[in-house]
Amino acid sequence: MSGIHVVYRFFVHPLIGSTMRATIYVCFLLIFISVQGCKLDELPSTKFLLEKPSAEFIVTNDGCTSSCTMTFTSQSTTATDYFWEISDGSISTQASFVKVFTSSGSYTVKLTVTNKAGSSQKQVVVSVKAGIPSPIADFSIVGSDCIAPCEVAFINKSLNASSYIWSFGDNSNTTEINPTHLYREGGNYNVSLTATGAGGTASKTQQITIRATAVPKLWDKTFGGDAEDVLMNMVMNPDGSVTAGGYSYSGISADKSESSRGSVDYWITKIDGNGIKLWDKTYGGSSLDFFNEIIVSSEGGYLLGGTSFSNISSEKSESNRGFGDYWIVKVNENGTRLWDKTYGGSADEYLNFILQNKSDGSYLLAGKSDSGISGEKTQSAKGGGDYWIVKINSVGVKLWDKSFGGAELDELTSIVPLSDGGYLLAGFSASSSSVDKSSSSRGTIDYWIIKIDAFGNRIWDRTFGGSGVDKLYTTQLTSDGKILLVGSSNSGREYEKSEASKGGLDYWIIKINSTGDKEWDKTFGGNGDDEANSVFQNSDGSFIIGGYSKSEKSGNRTDDSRGNQEADYWILKIDANGNKIWDKAFGGSGKDELLTMVGNSANNSLFLGGYSKSSVSGEKSQASKGNTDYWLLKIRN
Known about the structure:
The structure is a single chain. The chain is mainly β. It contains no helices and 46 strands. The strands form twelve sheets. Strands 1, 2, 3 and 4 form a four-stranded antiparallel beta sheet that branches. A four-stranded antiparallel beta sheet has the order 8-7-10-11, with no helix packed on it. A four-stranded antiparallel beta sheet has the order 15-14-17-18, with no helix packed on it. Strand 22 and strand 23 form a beta hairpin.
C-alpha cells in the first residue's frame, strides 16, 4: 500500500439502555487516505466484547481431619487479579494455593476476582474434622546441682500422652509419670523421656551433671627402712590409734629401730590418730618369717601370725616342722613378746587368718597346708593343698585341727563365726568334685565355702564361680546376719557370675544367706586388673570395698591412673544391695597396693594400708624410705 496512510479511529460505545450488564463494545474504523489527502476507501468496523470475570473455584480435600491440607484452585475466566480470604485471617493473591489447617472447625473461604471490566466474588464454607493430637514430650529437672549420691526429681510436662518411659543415663529406666532418681556417682547423664499417646510418640533429651563425691584425704604417712617393707594387716585400737603389721627386709634405718633377725622379719608399728609413729618392734628367727595377720586379743595385747621358715633363734622358741609353718607371737599392748608357738607338718603351711572366740578366748588359725599326717597335722592331705584350721586355747595349746580339700589346690583365707556356734570357712579352690568338695569346678579356680560345726565337722559346702579364675580373699558378716564374700574374678557372665567382666581381673562381691544361697553378686572394675582384698561395714549398712587397681579411668573407675597403671589404692562404696555409690583412687607415680583397711564408724574415718614404691607424687606426700615402704592413709569416709 505504498503512498497510502492508514488511519485508525477508535471509540467506545456502551449499549444504550444496558444498565445491568457492563458489557463493553470496542469499535474502530480503518480509513485509507492517499498521500494527496484523497479518501480512497473505508473498511467495515469490527466489534470486540470484554466481560466482567465470574468468580469460581474448586476445593480439594474438604472435610479432612486435622492437621491436614486443602488446595483451592480458581476456575475463573478473564480474571487478571485474585484475592483469597479465609476466616482464620489467611490471605493469598495466587490463582490457586495450598492451606494447612491445624485445628478443627468450619472456615469461610472467599475469592474475589478482578479485571478491567469489574470484579466478582464467591465464598464457600469448608470443614476440618477434629484429629488425634500428636504428643509433645517435655520435662523439667529439680535438684540436679548436687553431689553424688543424691536424688534428682523430674517433672513431666508432656501433652497428649498416656504413657511414659524415662531413661536416666545410668542404665536405669522407669515408667513413672514424675519420677525421682538416685544418682550414686558423679558424671554427665543424658536423661530422655519418651511420651506415647493415641497420636503417636515423641521424645525429649536433656543432659544433667552430677558432681562427684569428694573423699577427703586427711593425711598420708610413709614408714620404712632402707630395704623392702610390706604392710599386710592392721587393727584399730580403742584410743583411735592403729597397729600395723607386715614383713621387713630392712635393718636399723629410717623408721625401723631394731635390727633384722634373719632375711625377713615380722615388723609391727603403732601409729596414733594423726599418723605419728609411737613405737615399732621386730620379731623373727634366722631365716624367712612372713607376717600376715594381727588381731586385738580379748585378754589384752595382740596376737600376730604368719609363716615362718626359721628354726629356734631370736624370738622363735620352737623349731620348724617342715619348711614353712604357722607361727604366732603373743605380745602385750606395748609390743613386748609374751610367748610364741609353731604349728605345722612335714611340708609347707601358710597362715592367712586368725579368729578369736569371745566366749572362751580360744583362737582359730586358718590357712593352707601341703603336709600329710605329721607334726601338728593329724589328717592326711586331700590334694595339692588343703584348707587347714587349727584351734588353740588362749595360751597357744592346740585343741584340735581339721583339713578340708579336693584333689587339687585349695586355700583357706577367712573364717566367719556363726550364731549357732559353727563357722564358715572361706577361700578358693582349683578342685572339682572330690573328697570334701561336693560341687564340680566352674572354671580354673572358684570361690569355695564350707560350713563346719563348733568341733570342726563339715556340714555342707558351696562353690561359686565363672569359667575363669575367681579367688575369694576376705569376708564380712553383715548387719542383717548375711555374709559378704569379697575377692577377684576374670570370668565373664556364667554360672554364679551374673555380670560381664569389665577388663582383666575385677572386684567380685557375693552376698549369701546363712545356708550358703546366693542373694546377689556384683562386678566392679576398669580396663585392667583390679583385685579386692578388704571390706569395711559402715553403720548405715553400706560397705567400703578395698584393693588395688591397674586400670585407667574406665568402667567403674572414675579416677585417672596415678602410676601409669602399675597399681593404685582403689576403694569403692556400695550400698546394702551392692549398688555402687562412689569410688576413689589414691597413689603416686609408682606401684601402690592396698592390702588392708580398718575404720572408725564413730567419726567416719577410715585407714587404708599397704605398700608403696612411689616417691612424692599424686596423693603420696612423703619420700620413699627404701625399696618398698608401708603407706598409710587416713580418709574421711
